[in-house]
Amino acid sequence: MSMIRDLRAAVRPSRPSLRKDTGPYDATRDPSTPSAVIDCAVYRDGRRMESDKQLSPHEAMRQVRRDGGFVWIGLHEPSEAEFSGIASEFGLHPLAVEDAVQAHQRPKLERYDDSLFTVFKTIHYVEHDELTANSEIVETGEVMCFTGRDFFITVRHGGQGSLRALRHRLQDDPELLAKGPSAVLHSIADHVVDGYVAVADAVQDDIDEVETEVFTPGRGGKVSRGVDSARIYQLKREVLEFKRAVAPLLRPMQLLSERPMRLVDPDIQKYFRDVADHLARVQEQVLGFDELLNSILQANLAQASVAQNEDMRKITSWAAIIAVPTMVCGVYGMNFDYMPETHWKLGYPVIMAITGVICIGIHRTLKRNGWL
After folding, report:
1. Cβ(188)–Cβ(163) under 8 Å?
2. Could you report the per-residue pLDDT of 154-212, keeping only the tens digit for each?
3. d(CA 217, CA 221)
């Protein structure tokens, strides 16, 4: 196994880190603590144990094993070297460790001997003044969670989805935090799904805007020529990205709410049902978005086709009108000496009058039939 992992590491391309400034915790971080660690704290009876300096994962775990409680470690885009020590300290499964380091995983729940490994896709709505063919509607990130009996580890990838505010809210609710690591897992799941709800509402506004443009009549009540199909297609692609984050997560949330697990407190398990319910509603919304965008795209293409047909009818109508003087001028443009009316004084005005009457008659007939 070791040799296989080494080979995988050798062939994988390196990816740039998106790690951002980690805030006030940097000032107190112990030099021996890996740089990917955003925060590391021990919680006992629902309260954070204060320390003069930022604890290393090893020191935090040593305190937990000595005095009880649990340790919560937050990491942002750790490298394999940075995470290997933590993985060894907490006995994390190698396959879960590899997924956490490499990222780009689909949402899932995996159970190992002494831990649960959960993957969440975070979704962030990208504000924009105008929807274009290149607009980025949603931005995704990932949060991987390792839940153990006396530890909880989060590994975050991407520039969005910070858990700092969530940690502070939990610290303000000692009664909930006293339930242990499963309470943190529920709070993260609830936080992620609440983000889905907010993004779904924002995407609904974008779809409503496009739908209004497509079905708004043109000038004079005529059929609209629709909008740029590339805009609709781009919106559909962003909805697909949203669906990839939401759909696979529903089954893990149902398992956490329905199936008893050693590492999930029975009181906390009840709350996962609420998360699963909210997630199911968001999934229905996203599936509805996909179907609605298909209908809007088809309607837009149909309107474009109708507008093209109208253009062709107008071109054909004017061609028919112009054909009359073209034919008359073509006949009288032939250089023959013995042609009727060529030596008649009233020949020219009579022919022009007849040609004009025929053209006007054709124009009125075509306009009455809606071709002009």
Report:
1. yes
2. 999 987 778 889 999 999 999 999 999 999 999 999 999 999 999 999 999 988 888 88
3. 5
Angle formed at CA 16 by CA 12 and CA 18, multiple of 5 degrees: 130
pTM: 0.74
Distance CA 36, CA 328 (A): 87
CA torsion sign, 219 to 225 to 231 to 235? Answer: positive
State the pLDDT at residue 148. 92
Specify whether the CB–CB gap between 126 and 203 falls below 8 A: no
Q: What would the mean pLDDT of 101-129 be, rounded to a whole number?
A: 89
DSSP characters over 301-356: HHHHHHHHHHHHHHHHHHHHHHHHHHHHHHHHTS--SS-TTTT-TTHHHHHHHHHH
CA angle 205, 282, 153 (to 5 degrees): 115
The values of phi and psi at residue 198, to 5°, are: -65, -40
Select from 148, 153, 128 the least CA-distant residue to 138.
Answer: 128
Within a 13 Å sphere around the CA of 258, how many CA atoms are in the beta-carbon half?
8
Which three-class secondary structure state does DSSP give residue 97? helix
Judge whether 99 and 117 are in contact, CB under 8 Å: yes
The larger pLDDT score, comparing residue 109 to residue 160, is at 109
Range list of β-strands (E), the chain: 37-44, 47-48, 70-76, 108-111, 116-125, 138-147, 151-157
Q: Are strands 138-147 and 37-44 parallel, antiparallel or unpaired?
A: unpaired
d(CA 184, CA 192): 12
293: nearest Cα among 233, 224, 252: 233
